[in-house]
Amino acid sequence: MPEEPYPPLPMPDHDDQDKPNASRILQLLNKGKIIEDHGRLRWSSNYTTIVTVCDDELKTLAVYKPQRGERPLWDFPDGTLCYREVAAYTVSNALGWHIVPPTVLREGPRGLGSVQLYIENDTSINYFSLSDDFIPQLLLIAAFDVIVNNADRKGGHVLLDAHGKLWGIDHGICFHEEPKLRTVIWDFAGQPIPSSVLEDIQRFLDDLCANGEVAHCLKQLISKTEFNALIERTKKLVSQKVYPFPSGSGPSYPWPPV
Question: Which residue in 8, 33, 40, 152 is a FRET match for 180, CA 20 to 30 A apart?
Fold first, then answer.
């Protein structure tokens, strides 16, 4: 299992302190005061802003996606995208892969929405410019996208931070009960899934089937039908033990690709 990363936070006057752990980051995102809205991300399909979240000890930038700013979609229920963002983080965390930045559901300046830790990254780099050195991390992202049924893995939705870690963002249209996988990461189609990755997936599946803590959390975020479909997709991946090929029954690549 990959070691849990601790994303760096801007820490005023506390540069000599240890980096906060994941629980502390979630506490900040959940309970911290949103003190500044830095403006909308104009290229986003839905209303998305960068905000500053702070408490008495820490502050950080975060990505805030309010529910009422979500653009209606024909195939996803209205007002559910922010829940799916949090569900994607929940799955990423449960797998032990920490692909999705810490994400919470909370009230913000424009009402209920998802609030996700902002990842400082080189905006000139995306999936298409990554070298083979990143294959081990991309193998995890590819498997993750199959599990959550990601309908929008664009090249620009893979971020590289200053420490060489890849992060996946924008998971608002995941978890549909019907096959919707649209991704630019088809490089591993037909290749065997590494045994260590399969072990993580099996452990995650065991929790879902046993109605464990992760299952309970996910049932608050996605529908019963979507939860059952998540189990079936995960079972299929574990059984087949290979990365799937494009289905051929619909679009397999997102547009635009970046």
Answer: 40
CA-closest candidate to residue 97, choices 191, 168, 186: 168
- Separation of alpha carbons 236 and 191, rounded Å: 15
pLDDT in tens, the chain (258 residues): 334 444 445 433 334 345 678 899 999 999 999 987 787 776 677 889 999 999 999 999 999 999 999 999 999 999 999 999 999 999 999 999 999 999 999 999 999 999 999 999 988 999 999 999 999 999 999 999 999 999 999 999 999 999 999 999 999 999 999 999 999 999 999 999 999 999 999 999 999 999 999 999 999 999 999 999 999 999 999 999 999 999 877 789 999 999
Q: At what angle do helices 224-240 and 135-148 cross, to 10 degrees?
A: 140
Euclidean distance between CA atoms 120 and 101, whole angstroms: 11
DSSP state of 155: G
Is residue 227 a contact partner of residue 172, using CB atoms and an 8 Å limit? Answer: no
User: Residue 175: which of 77, 71, 68, 88 has the closest Cα?
Assistant: 88
Rounded Cα gap, residues 103 and 86, in angstroms: 6
Question: DSSP label at 149?
Answer: T
Distances (CA, A) of 246 to 184, 186, 191, 251: 11, 8, 13, 9
Q: What is the pTM of this model?
A: 0.91
